Amino acid sequence: MKNLKPDFEQCRQMFLDVMKHSNNSLGIIINEKTVQFYKEKNNKILVEIINSNMINNQMFADVNESIDIIKSIYEKHLIEVLPNMKLINIKVESLEDVLDKE
Q: What is d(CA 40, CA 45) in angstroms, rounded to the nearest whole number?
């Protein structure tokens, strides 16, 4: 979805539909920034701000936290790095790898 079209309620419903199954994702693009929500097999949702250098901000969230993030994006018209996000070089490691080291 680009530049917050469709509206929040439609986006929320699409998110819920997409997240019913593992290995599905939903992306939101505002200007040149993209946030992706990826449903993993273990019911965790990977929230990722995609950067061209392959070093992405990532965190895990549940469905409700993800909806709150989407709502914030719609309210602010902005994709921003969240406090719980970790900077991950996705060519080298995963968020799981980083969290296991902590």
A: 6
Neighbours of 32 (CB within 10 A): 7
Confidence of residue 2 (pLDDT cuts 50, 70, 90): low
In tens, the pLDDT along 16-26 reads 999 999 999 99
Burial (CB < 10 A; 0-12, 13-18, 19+), residue 57, is: buried
Q: For residue 37, report the phi and psi dihedrals to the nearest 5 degrees.
A: -110, 120
**The dihedral formed by the CA atoms of 25, 78, 57 and 51, expressed in degrees to the nearest 10:** 80
71: closest CA among 6, 11, 1? 11
